[in-house]
Each structure stands twice: as structure tokens, then as C-alpha cells.
Specification:
mainly beta; Elongation Factor Tu (Ef-tu), domain 3; 12% helix; globular
């Protein structure tokens, strides 16, 4: 479980394919602090650390993960948002993020907003009941607040700290991002569907 508060940015240094899986080596300031078998959020995707060497760590994404996320588009030097799992004794500064990406979305627009940035994203209509105005969403693992929500798009506002300390500053129109919708909303949606 994560909070969506990014700790560091890593860089892809190697990619290998093994059957339907892809293995990635990531270099980051945190890599030497990780432990083998530890769960770490990579752009919002919970991956298991398999090996640590020379300031880098290795993770593998299976076919299901590659299908639901943007990891299949990672290339050498792609910047990755990293967050270690929470401890139950720490503050929850973002929102509860499982690291189980629901789908991807496209960045439709990036606008400067006099000291901040406003990003517009699309989303598959089938996920529409999981978004609410001023609700939480995880984009590439970043806990953000939804506004200007309609049936096809939503906006998020980015403060300078988040812009400078995550890979959101790498997004342009057409960039593909990982979305994880709020877990509480998913449970409520499931309960309501079952009670019909």
C-alpha cells in the first residue's frame, strides 16, 4: 500500500524480454536502500524488487501488468516515479494507493497557470463511476485531486514542488499515463452494483 507521495525519480538503464515478461533495471537514489522481495511503486505500479546491484534494482512486469499499464512503453532513460510502501505508523499525506493500475489514459493538454500547471487527461467511459469532482486519483503513482470532471476528461492541478520532483514534467500531449482509481470508490461501486 502506498500514499501517492513520490520519494524519488529513477531511470531505466536496461530492458530485457523473457517470454511475455519484461525485466527492467532502474537506477535511483533509493535503489541501495531497497531489499529483495520489497514492494515498490514504479509510476504507480507495485513491482517486487528482485535484485540490487551498484545503485540499481531489477523488477519484472508480467503480461497482465504490461497490458494494463504504460510499462511496455518504457525505454532506456525513461524517468520513473518511485515510492516505498507505507508503514502503518506514518502519516497518510496522499490517499490509499494499492499500486494496482486500472487502466491508462492520454494527456490531452498541458497549460501553464501562473505559477502552477493544469493537465487534462481522458479516461475510458467504463470507469466514469469511479471519478468524482475533488476526489483522489493516482496518475503515474502521484496522488492528485480531480476537477473539471466530465464524461470523458478530467483535470488535475500541479504545484511547482510536484512538477519538479516527479516525472509529470516529462508529459506532453499524447503521453500515456497509468491511472489507479480510488479504492474506496471501487468498493462502493461494487456494492451498489451487487445490490441492484
Amino acid at each position: 500500500m502506498f500514499t501517492g507521495i513520490i520519494e524519488a525519480i529513477g531511470f531505466v538503464t536496461a530492458i530485457n524480454s523473457q517470454g511475455d515478461n519484461k525485466t527492467f533495471w532502474i537506477s535511483s537514489p533509493l535503489s541501495n536502500e531497497f531489499k529483495v522481495d520489497q514492494s515498490v511503486s514504479h509510476d504507480g505500479v507495485c513491482l517486487t524488487v528482485e535484485e540490487i546491484k551498484d545503485g540499481q534494482h531489477r523488477v519484472t512486469a508480467i503480461a497482465e501488468t504490461l497490458k494494463k499499464s504504460n510499462l511496455g512503453q518504457w525505454r532506456l532513460d525513461t524517468q520513473i516515479n518511485l515510492e516505498r510502501s507505507i508503514q502503518l505508523s506514518q502519516r497518510l499525506d496522499g490517499h490509499l494507493v494499492q499500486g494496482h493500475v486500472d487502466t491508462t489514459a492520454h494527456c490531452l493538454k498541458v497549460a501553464h497557470a501562473n505559477g502552477s500547471w493544469q493537465f487534462t487527461f481522458d479516461f475510458p467511459p467504463s470507469f466514469g463511476t469511479l471519478l468524482i469532482e475533488k476526489g483522489s486519483i493516482s496518475i503515474n503513482g502521484i496522488s492528485l485531486t480531480v476537477f473539471n470532471l466530465n464524461n470523458k476528461t478530467f483535470d488535475v492541478g500541479i504545484i511547482p514542488y510536484t512538477f519538479n520532483h516527479t516525472n509529470i514534467n516529462q508529459l506532453n500531449e499524447g503521453s500515456v499515463v497509468n491511472l489507479e482509481f480510488d479504492m474506496i470508490g471501487k468498493y462502493i461501486n461494487r456494492i451498489m452494483a451487487q445490490s441492484k
